[in-house]
Amino acid sequence: MSNFIKSYQANVGLNHTPAYQVSGQPFAKGAINAASSTQTVNFPYVTRWVVVNNNSSTVLKVGFSTRGVAAADYFDVLPNSSSPRLEVKVSQIFLNGGAGATVSVVAGLTSIPSTRVDTALGTSWSGSSGVG
Questions:
Q1: β partners of residue 47
Q2: Taken in order 27, 34, 39, 88, is the CA torsion positive or negative?
Q3: What are the phi and psi torsion angles at 95 (to 5°)?
Q4: DSSP β-bridge partners for residue 39
Q5: What is the pLDDT of residues 44-73, one digit of tens each?
Q6: Domains of the chain and CATH, by start
Q7: Residue 116's pLDDT is what?
Q8: What's the predicted TM-score (pTM) here?
Q9: Pairing with 121, which of 35, 93, 114, 115 sits 20 to 30 Å away (CA)?
Q10: Residues 45, 107: contact at Cβ < 8 Å?
Q11: What is the pLDDT of residue 69?
């Protein structure tokens, strides 16, 4: 019985449903230069949702790990367009575009510290199938 934690004393984690039921804390980052190398956007809390805006004339690669963007575990955001609202719980996203690629990211954050997605293989699901 000594290991039992009362629910009102437990820390929130990835499966804490109420953290995803409320509106997200706003997060916005603009003028990200993803032209020459993969850029990482770190979120201070786990996301509830994310939208990536590609403000350039080149295709943008978006992934959930550095390896994913370098390999084939990414998705494209077409020139001068936005991704759909991605309902994902991540602490980082990775962006890589061509010459002149400028990006902005908008997200809704939960109250879950980003350290809750740290794994033995890295943060933000790195090493998982489909993530890279």
A1: 109
A2: positive
A3: -125, 135
A4: 95
A5: 999 999 999 999 999 999 998 888 888 888
A6: 28-117 (2.60.120)
A7: 77
A8: 0.83
A9: 35
A10: no
A11: 87
